[in-house]
Write a structure and sequence with these properties.
This protein is of the alpha/beta class. It folds into two domains: 5-204 and 289-311, Alpha-Beta Barrel (TIM Barrel), CATH 3.20.20; 207-283, no CATH class. It has helices spanning 5-10, 27-35, 49-62, 78-87, 104-109, 121-129, 153-163, 177-185, 195-198, 207-215, 237-247, 252-259, 263-269, 293-311; strands spanning 16-18, 40-43, 67-72, 92-96, 113-118, 134-138, 144-145, 168-171, 190-193, 221-224, 231-234. The protein has an eight-stranded parallel sheet. The model has no long low-confidence stretch (mean pLDDT 94).
């Protein structure tokens, strides 16, 4: 157990946040992480409004500890999602992919703690100016949608920590206790972990996708679709189609047509490993097994404590 700005802000035991990943982060995963002492997040980006409401209600029934919802601000039904979160009295919201000024005041009026995800110092400062309670500094290593700057977590984190006064949560390339310790040394108050929890028992991802994560090796992922919406993917047939289209100078409209609708669902939720979009981080190369979320959190925390004790002897 640790007491710092993040554990105090969220009222959790450990400064470990499970990322709100589309098609992976349902109520089962969020409640399991929260019950284990971290902060679980429901990933609303892949949910219709009525589905989000159901997941929130099931999460409430499964845990009496704090949990949150991740909301991509570019989501088409954003107003309905925000209203559902307010109506259901969700205590914590992580926003991303948009301007935090738009919804932060509304959420905070209802007593909701707000955190926003960024990939640059400039936007971290805008997050603080918007009144957010904390900021996630996400490096280039992260899975899913990412920043165009391609700044690694190792470089981004200390820059953001020096630039803002609100608590900073590190994300991107973190899947172990030693990586967590490195982030804390660099100025983080906590860590957000996605890929490792995507390969958990409680993850709503398809079993085929979980096994693809475990099988991934160094160099098996790449940041793709940079002209459209940068996203880190496992290299498969769909990825190769995108690369070929980009090499031929495809327009944004042509890339959008290639992406189509439901591509991420097809890959991560339905398990089509060749035609689907398989969003995962570089840290997948170090993931060796599918484990219960509570065991993952315990393993990370115990390694963090062990490595911290060793560093104290230097």
């Amino acid at each position: 157990m640790m007491t710092n700005r993040i554990t105090s802000l969220f009222r959790i035991q450990y400064p470990i946040i499970q990322a709100g990943m589309i098609w992976c982060s349902g109520w089962e995963l969020a409640s399991a992480v929260s019950n284990a002492g971290g902060l679980g997040l429901i990933g609303s980006g892949s949910m219709y409004p009525d589905v989000l409401k159901t997941h929130i209600q099931k999460c409430k029934a499964a845990t009496d500890r704090p949990f949150g919802v991740n909301v991509p601000l570019l989501y088409p039904n954003i107003e309905e999602h925000i209203q559902t979160i307010i109506d259901e009295k969700v205590p914590i919201v992580f926003t991303s992919a948009g301007n935090p000024k738009t919804w932060t005041p509304v959420l905070k009026e209802h007593g909701i703690t707000v955190v926003h995800v960024v990939s640059s110092v400039k936007f971290a400062q805008k997050v603080e100016a918007a009144g957010c309670d904390a900021v996630v500094a996400e490096g280039f290593e992260a899975g899913g949608h990412n920043g165009r700057e391609e700044t690694t977590t190792l470089c981004l984190l200390p820059l953001v920590a020096d630039a803002v006064s609100i608590p900073v949560i590190a994300a991107g390339g973190i899947g172990s206790g030693r990586a967590m310790l490195a982030c804390m040394v660099l100025g983080a108050d906590g860590v957000q972990i996605g890929s490792r929890f995507a390969a958990s028992k409680e993850s709503s991802a398809h079993e085929h996708f979980k096994q693809a994560i475990v099988a991934a090796k160094e160099g098996d992922t790449e940041l793709s679709l940079k002209q459209l919406t940068p996203v880190r993917l496992i290299k498969n047939d769909f990825y190769r189609e995108v690369k070929a289209a980009e090499a031929k100078g495809a327009t944004l409209e042509e890339l959008q047509q290639l992406l189509g609708r439901g591509r991420a669902k097809k890959g991560m939720f339905e398990g089509n490993l060749e035609e689907g979009e398989l969003e995962i981080g570089q840290v997948s190369a170090g993931i060796q097994s599918v484990m219960p979320a509570a065991d993952i959190l315990k393993e990370i925390w115990e390694e963090f404590e062990q490595r911290k004790a060793v560093c104290g002897k230097w």
